[in-house]
Amino acid sequence: TLTYKNGFALPRRPSAGIGQEPLVSEQLSLPEISELSFEKPDLTYHLDDKTVYKDFIPAYVAFDKKVLRFFAYFLEDVWNSPDEDHRIRPVVIYYFLEDDSMCIWESAVMNSGISQGKRLKRHRVPKNDSGDYYHWKDFNLGIDLEVYGYKYHITHCDTFTKDFMEHEGIVLNEPEPMPEDPYIKHRQLSPPPRITSPTPNITHRFLTMDHKKIPKKLKSETAPSCIMELTKKDVDEYYSPKDFQLGQK
């Protein structure tokens, strides 16, 4: 298989191909061999791509401080109360796009008597028992969102959330009005409590009226004695029939 030329071992060129078939190089004529030098060989590597690609931006940078805000409410049953059988408690659901976490906040109602504020701290909320988590694609208007046994009914959202969802190809349902709590409505319609007059401030009167006296400038005047109607003379003095004459004023 080797031959020597000028003292160097070189592989011996086969005279025939596999199966004693003639070699391809021996089938070419001299003009065809000369034309091979003018042909442009195909490149085995890819041409230089001139496409300009955008720089990669991670999600925590692209969606930094971008929050979706949904308005919702949930029903709470009330037991052993003659005034109400359920409560409507409105909440706000915040969804953070940077890490797909969410939190739920309940606005405080004056004189409600229940603990309000943060209902759910910020974290990734599990969607089911299979290990899936809630994604912003799972949100829409007019649907129920079950979180840890509570069903939150989403009514509407803000303008930024609406534009973001529509830009991502999600068709939002029609917004719904937020229902009013019947007990709060009844309490607002009830008459206001009666406000009693303040008690006199004795200390203030002592400081402002000290050393002040009512002047005793009395003058003796003759008052009609008929006011008391003590005797018959007093009555006759003013109610005598002679005073009531026709045609006189």
Short structural description:
The protein contains 7 helices and 8 strands, in the order ββαααββββββαααα. It is an alpha+beta fold and 249 residues long.
Task: Please explain how this structure is put together.
It is a single chain. This protein has 249 residues and is an alpha+beta fold. Among the domains are: 34 residues, no CATH class; 127 residues, PH-domain like. It has 7 helices and 8 strands. The strands form 2 sheets. A 6-stranded antiparallel β-sheet has the order 6-5-4-3-8-7, with helices on one face. A two-stranded antiparallel ribbon has the order 1-2. The model has no long low-confidence stretch (mean pLDDT 80).
Helix count, per DSSP?
7
Structural class: alpha+beta
N-to-C SSE string, H for helix and E for strand: EEHHHEEEEEEHHHH
CATH class of the domain at 61-187: Mainly Beta
Shape category = rod-shaped
Work out the strand percent. Answer: 15-25%
Under CATH, the topology of the domain at 61-187 can be stated as PH-domain like
Mean pLDDT: 80
Helix content: 10-25%
The count of β-strands is 8
User: In the CATH hierarchy, what is the architecture of the domain at 61-187 at level 2?
Assistant: Roll
- Lateral arrangement of strands in the main beta sheet: 6-5-4-3-8-7
Give the uncertain stretches in residue-range form: none
Question: Alpha-carbon distance between the termini?
Answer: 166 Å
Q: Can you summarize the main beta sheet?
A: 6 strands, antiparallel
Subcellular location: Cytoplasm, Cytoskeleton, Cilium axoneme
Keywords: Cell projection, Cytoplasm, Cytoskeleton, Repeat
Protein name: EF-hand domain (C-terminal) containing 1
GO cellular component, one term: axoneme
